[in-house]
């Protein structure tokens, strides 16, 4: 089922092209080693990952600030593993974690192959809720920045996906129309519903195999499956 009339392809970055979980784990290992934090990293990450998802949802909903997100996800994780830590050290970890993230550049399988395929047919762009100060560095480190004409961050717009202002701003910047644009992302709420709400097409990158069945958009488990649609 090829989608006709598409001219602009917008990608989410984290969890869609850039392997956030793998790179995040490596960044934490580097921080913990540097700060001589001796708790078991695997146990910490089992607590941190779901907390991080919860706080990103609150952040998207404008219920916590960026600073609260960075502090609370760490504080609650350390508390859960019974590790006593000062607020000053939490602040250091939060800063170094963000600084170290772009040092790691793991991408999802077939990222280069699908971007090489798509760049010949479409204009490619990024729409991300990630922090503006590190998203470009991530893309430079993983050698994918050159594929994209426009990179739109929620920081630059002042609101976050799924707010329609983000998508409308992205369409305007890219000189694109909603009917000839498609959004590809992992988050049904932020990426897919947000795009559909402004009249864009959407494809859900369902890499974790969630039970998502919705007639309004296709769902794929591998980036290579995009060739069936684009």
TrEMBL record:
Domain of life, source organism: Bacteria
Stored InterPro entries: HAD-like_sf, HAD-SF_hydro_IA, HAD-SF_hydro_IA_YjjG/PynA, HAD_sf, PGP-like_dom2, Pyrimidine_5'-ntase_YjjG
Gene Ontology MF terms: 5'-nucleotidase activity
PANTHER family xrefs: PTHR47478, PYRIMIDINE 5'-NUCLEOTIDASE YJJG
Entry protein name: Noncanonical pyrimidine nucleotidase, YjjG family
Source species of the chain: Polaribacter glomeratus
